[in-house]
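>> received
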Amino acid sequence: MRTHDAQMLVLSALADGPLHGYAINAAVEKLSGERLGPGSLYGALARLEAKELVEPLPGEGRQRPVRLTAKGRAALERELRSLAEVTERMFEAAVPDRIGYLDRLAGTAAARSYKQVMRDALAARPDHTALDLGCGPGTDLAALAEAVTPSGTVIGVDTDPEAVDRARERTADLPAVDVRLADAHALPLADASVDRARTDRVLQHVADPARVLAEARRVLRPGGRLVMGEPDWDSLAIDHPEPELSRAYTRHIADRIVRNGVIGRQLPRLAAGAGFTVPSVVPVTSVFRDVRAADRILGFQRNAERAAAAGYFSEEAARRFLDHLATGPFLAAVTLYVVVAEVPGPEPESGSEPGESEPEEPGSEPETERRDGAS
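>> returned
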C-alpha cells in the first residue's frame, strides 16, 4: 500500500483514534486533499475489516465507529517506515558543494535552454571584451571565448577562490580568458572598458544587486549590453494534494533560502535605476516531471526540514509533503527571467575606441524567443 491507496488512507485517518464513516472521509480529505467516493471508502473499510486491520465498535449503520486493531496499527507503522525509506532514497539530504552544484545544474536540459537564450541575447562578437560577473568554476567562459574569438577578451570574476582556481584550470588553454578573484560590487576594471556583460543566477545571491548593476553600468561602453538570467522563486509551483504545503515550501525558499528570492521580477526596475534601457524581458519557465531531477536542483528534503524548523509548516506536514512527492505523480515549474539592459549611446564598431563608431543599423538588436527551460 501507499498513501494514495484507499486502504492506506483509511488506516492513516484512524491513527489518532476511532472515527465513523463521515469523519474518516473528512480526515482522508485533510491528508490527501480530496475525499474518497462512498464505494471506495466502504469498500476499503470492508477489506480492512476482513484482514483484521480494523474493527467496528458498537453503533448503528454508518455512524458506527471503527478503530485500528493492534494488527492494523502494526501494518500502518510498517508502511510509514517503508515510506520514510523511500523518501530517504529519493531525496538528497546533504547540501552539495557549490562547484558540484553549478556543474550539475549546467548539465541539465533546462539550463542549456535558458543559457542559449542568454547567449543569443548577449550577441558577443569578435574583438569584443565580454565580462562574466560571478563566473563560478568557468561554466560559460569557453562559449564566450568562442564568440569573441582570439581577437577579443573574456574576463571572469568571482569572489570564491576555489571557483576561480577551477575556472583558471578549465580555461588554461584559452589565452583570451582572464579569470580574476574580485567582487562584483567593486569591479577592478576601468570605466567604459567592456562591450558585453552577463550575470547568470548571481544577483539572487549578492548583498546589493543595485550596486552590482551600477558597477556593470560603469564598466560598459556606450551601446554596451548586459544580459541577466535570474529566477523568481515566488513563481515556484509544486503540485500537491494540499496546496497550502506547496505554498509554504515556496514562501520559505523565497523568504529564507535565497537572499534575493524575487530578483527576477525586479531586474527591469533595478536596471532602469542604474541608468540602463531595458529593451527585452523574456520569461523562461522550467517544467519538471521527474522528481529526482527536480530534487537535484530544489533540494526537497533538506529544504522541507528547514521550512519545518522555521515554522512554515509542521514536521508532520513536511513528512506528508515529501511522502506525496516521493510516491505520487510529480509536476513542478519555476520561471527565470532573461533581461537585456543596454547603455544608451551608439556602440563602437569592433576594434574602435568609444566615440569613433557609427550607430548600428536599425533592427540590428538580437532577436530573443520564448523557450521552455531554466532553473
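>> Residues 70-90 form the longest helix (21 residues).
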